[in-house]
Structure formats: C-alpha cells, structure tokens
Amino acid sequence: MNNIKRKLAAFTFRTGFLAVFFLTACDKGFEEMNINPNSFTEPAIDPLFTNSIIRTVGTGTTDRNRTNIKYASGIMQYHATLQNFWYGEKGVVNAQTGNFFETVYTSHLRELMIVIRETEGNPELINQNAIAKIWKVYALHRVTDAYGDVPYKQAAGAPEGIYKPAYDKQSDIYPWMLQDLEAAINQMDAAKASFGAADVIYAGSVPKWKAFGYSLMLRLAMRLTKVDPTMAQTWAQKAIAGGVMQSNADMAKLAHISANENTWNWDARELKRESLPEGNQGLGFVKMGKTFLDLLQVNQDPRIPFYMTLWEGNIDAKQGQVISQTTAIELQKALPNGYDPNTIGTVIPGWKNELLREYSEPNTATIANFSAPTIILSYSEVEFLLAEAALRGWETGVPQEHYHKAIRANMESSTLYPNSSVANVAITPEEIDTYIAAHPLTGSMPEMMQQIHTQFYLAHYMYLDFFEAWSNWRRTGVPTLQQINYALNATGGAPVRRLMYSFEEKSLNAASVENAIKNQGPDLYTTRVWWDKE
C-alpha cells in the first residue's frame, strides 16, 4: 500500500476519464454537468462515486475480475482448465494472489473515501454520505472475506496521511461493518436529494439503497452462523425487520454496453479472452468444470443451455446463428478438474489437445456477453438466505416458500441478459414450474441446508459471482468439492480457503502483516478466516 503516492497522478487521470466516459455512455444528460473530476481541492463527488462503483464491480481494472474468475471460479470448480495459471483450481501460489487487495485500497476505495469525507456532517448531503458508506462496506467485505485481517479503520490510507495502515481483526471488522450499515441506513432521508444519475446502480433511489443495505446486512449476518450464532441471529432479524429486497426489480446491478471496452462487463471479458484465443477457437483455457455440470445434470437443470455451449456457439454468438443447437443439454461435456496437458491422459486415455473442442465453454452469447449486467447482489440470494433463516427459526416465513422464490427469481432474471429469448436457450415459465415442482425442500435440517445451498451454488453462475459462492461454501461446506492434489499445489489437495497477502504489502507494510499473521495464522491458502470456523 506504500505505492499509493506514486500511483496518484495516473490514478487521478483514469478516475476522471472512466467515470465521465461511462456516464456519457449510459446517461445522455450527464455530459451537461460541467464538473472537473480531477479536482481534489474541491472534489466533484458525483463522478468520484460513479467511478468507485464501476471499479469495484471490475470494469476498467483486471485484478478484481481475474481474482473472481481465475481464483474463485476455479476454487469452486465451476470451470476447469489444463493451465496452472488458473491458480484457484489447482492451489498454485502466484503473485496475483495479492492483486485484489492492492487494487481495492489503491483504486476502489480512494475516491469513495473522498466522497465520504466531503459529505460528512453536511445535512444536505446525508443520503450521498450514507450511500457511500454502504458501498464502502460492500467493497471491504469482499476484501476481508478473501484475506481475513485487513485495514478497516485506516482503510482511507494515503489521503489521510496513513502509508502503513494497521490491520484490524476480522472478528472486529464484522461487527463494525454491521454497525456501519445500520447507522448509514438510519441516516437516510427520502425527502432529501441523492446522487441521481451519478448512481449507476439505483439512480439515487433511497428506498432501493435501504433495501440493498439491509440485504447486505443479511448476507453478513448469515456469514457468522458458525462462529457466533447469537450475533448472526440478532443482525439477520434486524435486516429482515428493516426490509430486504422484495423482487428482481430491487437487485443491485450495473448495466453494460458492448460499444466500447470501457463499458463492457469485464468478468465476461475475462472469460471470453480465456475461452476464445485468437485463431484457436475451441482450444481455449477455460472449460466447464465437472463438479458443476454433474450437479446441473443430476438436477435436470434448464439453465444448462443458458450457461454453456460448445465452441461453435461462441464463435457465432453475435449473429445467434447456431447457439440454439450448440447449447443442447445432451451435447454438453465437462472437463475433469485438476489436470494439465501432461496429466489429463491419465483420466482420458488417448488425450490430444484437439479433444478440447469437445468440451463445453461459458456461453458468451448470454451470461458471458460483454453487455451482460454485473449483478452485485441479487434478490435470489436474499431469498435463499431467508429460507435458511426460516429453517433456523429466525424468520416467520415458510422455508420452502423462500427456497422456491429464490430458484424462480434466479431463473427469471435470465431475461436481463442478451439472447435470452433464443430457442433452446430461453428458460421458459413451464420449465421453471417443472423444476420447482421437482425440488421440494424436505428432510432433516442438514438435508434441507444441503438442498438450499446446492441451489445457491447453481444459481450464482447466472451472475458470475464466484466470490460469493466461494464464501458461502466456506460457511456451509456445500457443495462437496473434488479433492485436487495437483503436483505444484500449496494446499495438500485441499481447496483454497483464503488468499495470501501481496508480496508488496509484506515488504512495505511488514509490521502490520506480521501482526495479522500472529492473530489469524500463517499466510497460507489453507488458513481459515475468523468466520470460517471448523
């Protein structure tokens, strides 16, 4: 984090350019605002907040997306690859393990902390201040979930003159995040002004930001079910009483357009780059993982054509000429996880590289389309968590009703994506009804927990939210992941449970890193974060 000073000049330029470009693309009236986003003496909070949203979800910065794709999706065995630079799947140590940490503190949070500072104590800007504080919790909960102990109280870093911030214990960070969410939500006033067009998620809607804040509170509360059930129950019930999302119309999402790389969905960009190398279509680095496809197939899941295709469907995705054929359920085939070009022949005799073309890829016409929305937090997830809360007796609803609402909401949200109405790819109302009828929530509490969180896992591919699937797996143990004991792994064959701090941070902020290690354990992939209790 010591590199903040030398990054400031370049960052300032990028902040202004990206925020203004994105808003120009998405809102035709914003260019009329004659604001200089590069001014740090009198900061223009609107474009700074816009840029914080855009960068936090990954557009314009590869580190967040590569961590989501190359680490989290591989850890969760959604994807398989024969390359060992998909580090999560095989548990291989690489310098990129710390890139997400560095990017959040030197990019995502920088402008957000300025917004918070410049709006603090101003009664006319209480909504902007509250929304920025909610967004800060969203940004930092990802970081602490990935690494454990991280800076929270001193997250502002260099703008506050702090170049070696102290690391806070995750056991302190979680209560602080929940308290900060509650305080921010309580200060909001729908009668006062908000961000308006600069808010590219909810257009400044105070009621929707409140619902987002309470839904995020529910996510964080449920994270604590193993380590502190009492705290988990208290905050889950607060969130539910406050008012969580009620429909897909409430979900937090960022729209994208395909006109320019600066406005693409960069998770989709990363998947397309990995699955469609120039001149070697069908021989890309990413294929569908066996753990994931096996679960989809055993559940006779209608999302299979929406999620994946054979390589020809991706080549012609723009024209939509063949995806109705190449997405047929019976054609889909998953690559076993945990192998490289030299070892794959031990499980697939007679292997040769050309055989890669027989294996399914993420569907770049739909979920991995450049103009697909980034789903930040979904109504579907909220209903899955409500199903669990009801199962635990923390909520008065019927667990199965929430469970079925979650599945339905996820499948119906497919209509937000490009090419969602193409024959065979479309998920029809009849298919949704049939699937729900075939999936009652029954059995013992452990069995019902297994059912809820299996569906949670299957649903989160719709949103390419592999971070959240990974966090939920660490809490629940669902699904059961294949043991991968790759020759170069650093986990002894166990799945990765946290990311390691950056090499730069260990060098330049060594004392803080060392204190974190003393508190939570060795800086290893296998060390559990505080809430990931055995």
From TrEMBL:
Presence of the UniProt keyword Signal in the record: yes
SUPFAM superfamilies: TPR-like
InterPro entries per UniProt: SusD-like_2, TPR-like_helical_dom_sf
Alphabetical keyword list: Lipoprotein, Signal
PROSITE patterns per the UniProt record, alphabetical: PROKAR_LIPOPROTEIN
Signal sequence residues: 1-25
UniProt keyword annotation of Signal present: yes
Membrane-spanning residues: none
Name by which UniProt lists this protein: SusD/RagB family nutrient-binding outer membrane lipoprotein
